[in-house]
Each structure stands twice: as C-alpha cells, then as structure tokens.
Design a protein that fits this description.
two-stranded antiparallel sheet, single chain, 4 strands
C-alpha cells in the first residue's frame, strides 16, 4: 500500500508539472499583454463594441473595475435565482429560491467559493445551472487570475504606476484560457460517461420494485469549469462522488490534475514575467513540499482507520465510509487534499466521514489561506503575501530593509500584507464564535461534542477562505447560516483583494535595486524553508487552539485519552 501511495503521488506531481509548464508560458504572454496570433483584429473590434479603452489602469482604477464587475454579477445572479420559476429550461418546474438562499448562492458563485446550501438536482433549473452558475464559474475564476496578473506586473514593472487593464485581462483570460480548456475537458468528460443533456428526469423501477428518479442535465459543461476554475460547485448534491459527474478512475485523475493546473502554471508564469524562473520554481517547491506532507498524513490516517474499529478486529479496509469504491482510500485522500489546498470545493468523498486527523488536514489547508497551490490566481497572490512576510522576517534577522525581486518592501507594503493575511483568520474565528454562541447557529448542528464543533469550524473556514466544501451534518440552509456565510464569503474574497492590489500599485512605482552582498537570495532552499516555516507558523499560531477543540479533541477521544 505504501508503494501504491508513493507511485500515485509521484505520478500526479510529474504529470502536473509537465502540463503546467507550457501553459505557464502562455499565461506569461497574457501578463505581458502580448497579442495572440490571429486574434488581434478580433480583439480591436471587441474593444470598440464594448467601449473598452486600451489603456492601463492605476491600482485604484483596477480595483474599482473588479469590484463593480463582481457587484453586477451578484445582482444579476440573485435576480435570476429569485425568478427561476418563470424562466425557461426548467423541465422540472422548480420554483425560485428563497431570498436568503439566493443571496448566499449569488455571493458564493461570484466569489469563486461555490458553497452550496442546497441539493443542485432538486433546486436548480437547467437555465440557472448554465446561465447563472456556470457563467459565474468562468467570471469568478477570471477575476482571481486577473488580480494575480496585476500583482505580478507590480513586481515586474520598472517605475510604472499602472497594472494593466482589468477589462482586457478578464476578457482575454476567459477567451484564451478558460473557454478553450473547459471545452476540451468537457468533451473528454462526455467521452468517459459524464452526462450532458437537456432532457427531463427519467423515472424507472428498480429490480426490487422501488420507484426511482434519475436526474439529468448539462453536467459536463459545468463540471469542466467547476474543476478548471477551482470553483467546486457540483451539478449534483454529492458533487464529484456522483458517477454522472466523475464516472471512473481516469476522470478522477484528470479532475485532480485540472484543479492544480492553472495555479501551478501561474507560478511558472511569475518566474517568466520577472525574468528569473528560479523565483517561480521556489514557489512551486514550497507549495509541493507542504502538499506532499499533507497528502502523506491524510493517507496514513485513513489507511489506519478508526482505532475503535481496529480494537474490534477489523482492518483498515473497513474505513470506506463516505468513500466511493471506484476510487478507494488513496485516491479519496489525495482528492481531499487537492481540493482543500486549492480553493475548490469539489469532493469525491465525504470529508465528514474521514478520521479525526484525516479530516483535520483538509480543514487546516483551508485555514492556511489555500496557498498550497491554491485557487486560480488567489493561490499565487496569497503565497506572495507570505513571501513578503518571510522577507520581512529575514530582514529583521539581518538588520536590512527587506526586499524582494529588487524592490524594497516598505512600511505601507507590510501593513497591507498583515491586513490581507489577518482578514480570513479573523472572519473564521469570529464567525465560528458567533455561530456557537447563538441559538440559531447551534440549531444547525446535527452532532454534539468536538465533531459538531469541527463541522461549524469547517463551514466558516470554507466560506471565509472561498473553498466551498463542507463537513456533512450541518444544516446550513437557514437565514442565519446563509447570511453568516454570505458575509464571510464576500469579505474573504474582496477584503483581501483590496490590500493585494494596493501592494501591487505600491511595488509598481518602485525602482529595482541592484543585487548586493547583503541581498537575501529568494530562490534557494534556505528561503524556501523560511517560506514554509512562515506559512506553517502563522497557521499554527492562529488556528491550533480552535483545532484543539475540534478534530484534535475528537482524536484524543478515539484513543481513549
């Protein structure tokens, strides 16, 4: 089993890096605003029709464009869900959503969270799935990548106060990256058995004589961007554990590969744009080391199983509760780490059924800010925040003004970095406290004790960090939970983007300092170790007390201690 686990991890990482490298070159070209061969004339016509001026924006203008664009997305999606019952492509005649569920869902999909307080096949019409949710899957992913583009330009620019054009970035990312890749992935998924249909649900009788309804719909088209854009919102309630979304081991591997594809490619692009590929490789090394360590712990925990079962004479093979037999323990463990290391809420197993330690690692990966590859765009700019914190700590150690890629990191930059890093932990801890202190919050809990607290902590962590996955057992479709998680999702996304773009604007105007004897190399193993230590230290100091009340306490109970 150990050799199988090592082979699975090694093959996954090898294929990922091989396919991400060429995509990184293409993303670097978009960051540098290079024309795409054969499309320059079409672009000019498109900008003229849309009234988009081909001029670069300062960070304040870039931020305003991002905020207005996403605010409009929330309003349109909210209205669409409220009036779903009178809109077309609704063969099941599903009614409109309640105002609080519609608001939660609109914010969820606009912020790239895709938290779902509903069962998709019994709540959303085909029109809502395609025109509402799938469209926002594209646009929210493009927003995150655009912010990463802006920050990358901030490091690469030489005393230039602008960061590019937000409208051009979002459009080009959607047209040249997300759409073509999603089309290829959707066609592959259909070839493997993923459903793509506009027909009515089928009703049939099982061999036992029971009546059963088989839901159908445009699944493959949503599935592709759900995975590629690290969105995670499934067409079906059980997400990628459903055979119509994830039919076999091949599609499962492709889904895992696709989740990390753009985050890994952005690291390569970062090195290319800054004319030092070693910088991008250093980010990849730091992410990969933390990722492999997390996978190893989850696989070990799930293979060992529940200690209570072992005392009864059972072996680890019984630890299949909440897992699909077509994937098994190893693939389920790997998928759980990937989807929580990235900002993707897709699941092929129920995390609530994992062992205490097996469920704690995915939870902690979310709480770290999902910087271990992370979401499309958000993973890169989240990790770069920790890079700035790491060089600041190193500067304190050696008595020098911190710098990164030749640019001095000033007081303003560190204030914005600290603000961006502290926003999501504050939302998680305060939100969890509010939920546990109020009757409305506790009313949604189905389990008592540490496990019930873990479900609450996971839900708020998932919302604030824009992941979207959940432990089962928490009834979240209530006005209290829908509004609490909506606020956490909204602030967790845009309250971080504001200081990130402020940092980008500050760095863009700075001159590049020549490398000297006292310059800290930021591409070697020493800095990679410092970066990993910084991420782990911040996560430990922030969340270990809360984790001690949930999964750690549950693990101690299982051990009888």
């Amino acid at each position: 089993m150990v050799s199988s686990a090592l082979l699975l991890i090694a093959s996954y990482m090898a294929v990922l890096l091989i396919v991400a490298r060429p995509l990184g070159r293409g993303l670097a070209g978009l960051i540098n605003d290079q024309p795409v061969p054969g499309f320059a004339g079409i672009e000019r016509l498109l900008w003229r029709i849309c009234g988009v001026k081909n001029q670069a924006m300062r960070w304040q203008e870039y931020l305003l464009a991002i905020l207005l664009f996403n605010l409009l997305g929330i309003i349109v999606l909210f209205a669409l869900l409220i009036f779903q019952g009178v809109l077309p492509l609704n063969p099941q005649h599903l009614p409109g959503l309640s105002w609080h569920l519609a608001l939660n869902t609109a914010i969820s999909f606009t912020t790239n969270t895709n938290w779902q307080s509903y069962a998709g096949e019994s709540t959303m019409s085909n029109f809502s799935q395609m025109v509402g949710l799938t469209v926002q899957n594209f646009l929210s992913a493009a927003t995150g990548i655009a912010v990463a583009f802006a920050l990358t330009r901030g490091f690469a620019n030489r005393s230039v106060a602008t960061l590019g054009n937000a409208w051009r970035d979002i459009t080009r990312i959607t047209l040249y990256v997300l759409l073509p890749l999603s089309l290829l992935i959707a066609l592959f998924a259909i070839s493997q058995g993923t459903v793509q249909s506009f027909g009515d649900y089928l009703t049939f009788h099982t061999l036992e004589g029971a009546k059963q309804t088989l839901p159908l719909g445009p699944v493959a088209s949503q599935e592709a961007i759900k995975i590629l854009g690290t969105n995670g919102g499934g067409f079906f309630n059980v997400n990628s554990a459903h055979p119509f979304e994830n039919p076999n081991a091949i599609t499962n591997f492709v889904q895992m590969l696709t989740i990390f594809l753009i985050p890994a490619a952005l690291c390569f692009a970062f090195g290319d744009v800054n004319r030092d590929r070693r910088q991008g490789h250093a980010l990849l090394w730091a992410m990969s080391v933390m990722f492999i360590a997390a996978v190893a712990v989850v696989m070990w925990a799930e293979l060992n199983g529940n200690p209570h079962f072992l005392t009864l004479g059972a072996d680890s093979a019984v630890n299949m509760e909440g897992k699909e037999t077509r994937f098994g323990i190893l693939n389920s463990s790997l998928y759980a780490v990937i989807t929580t290391a990235a900002s993707c809420g897709a699941v092929n197993a129920m995390h609530d059924s994992f062992t205490a330690l097996g469920g704690m690692i995915p939870l902690w990966l979310i709480q770290l800010g999902e910087v271990v590859f992370g979401g499309v765009g958000s993973g890169l700019y989240g990790m770069l925040l920790f890079v700035l914190l790491a060089v600041f700590i190193a500067g304190l150690m050696i008595g020098r003004t911190p710098e990164y890629l030749g640019k001095k990191i000033g007081i303003w930059d560190m204030k914005m970095t600290a603000l961006a890093i502290l926003i999501t932990p504050s939302l998680v801890l305060l939100g969890s406290a509010v939920a546990m202190m109020t009757d409305a919050g506790r009313a949604g809990m189905a389990n008592p004790g540490p496990h019930g607290f873990s479900e609450v902590l996971y839900a708020v962590s998932s919302a604030a960090n824009n992941n979207g996955s959940a432990f089962a057992g928490l009834s979240a479709n209530t006005p209290f939970w829908n509004l609490l998680l909506a606020v956490a999702m909204l602030l967790g996304r845009f309250a971080v983007i504001v200081p990130v773009l402020a940092i980008a604007g500050s760095l863009a105007v700075k001159k590049v300092q020549p490398v000297g004897n006292g310059t800290l190399p930021t591409h070697g193993m020493l800095f990679i170790s410092l970066l990993i230590g910084t991420v782990m230290l911040v996560g430990a100091l922030t969340f270990i007390p809360a984790l001690a009340l949930g999964p750690i306490a549950e693990h101690m109970q299982q051990l009888g201690q």
